[in-house]
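Sat 14:20. Reprocessing the chain from the morning session after the first attempt stalled halfway. Input below, unchanged.
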Amino acid sequence: MKKTQILVFLFFAQLSFSQIDYGIQGGLNFDRAGSIQLTAEQFVENVDLGKKTGFHFGLYAKVDFLIFYLRPELQYTQVSSEYNGNTIDKSRIELPLSLGITAIGPLSIFIGPTAYFNLSQKSAELDFADLQNKTNLGLHLGTRLQLGALGIDLRYEKGLSDEEVQIISQAGIPVQGQVNSRPNQFVLGISLKLN
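Finished this time. C-alpha cells:
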C-alpha cells in the first residue's frame, strides 16, 4: 500500500513540474488516395484514385513526463486525388494525439489515435451527395527530430473505417457510384515551438 502511495505521489510531483510547450506546424501529405466505383447500365468500373500531394497546418501542445511526452494537435488538412484527369479535393479537421518516447538525443518515436472530421469533398467533374459519415478514427505512428525550437516529423496515418461518399452525376450525366477516400497517407511535417 505504501509503495502505491509513493508512486502516486511521485507521479503527481512529476506532473506538477512537467514542461508544457506549444507551437505551430504545417507540412505535406502524401495520400495514397482510395478508390472510385462507377455504375452505369450494367457496367461497373472500379478504379484506384491517383495520388496527389496535399497540405496541413495547425497548432500543437506538448507535455513532457521524464522521457515520455503527450502531444495533442489540431490541424486543417486538404488532400487531393485524381480520376481520369479530374481532381477530387477533400478537406478535413484532424485531431492527432501522440504518445511519444525520446529514443536517442533529439530523436523520438510516437504512436496514437487520430480523429478525422470531414468538411467537404469537391470535384469540377463529379457531383457528390452529402457526406454520410463526417467522422472517422485512425491510427498514426512516426518519428520526430527536435532541433531546438524546430521539429521535423515523418508519420504514417491510416483510417480505421471506410469513408464512402455517393456520386450523383459525372459531367452532368446521372451515374451511380461512390468514392472511398479513407485516410492512408505519409505526412511530412515541420513544427515551430513558440515558448
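The two ends are 40 Å apart (CA to CA).
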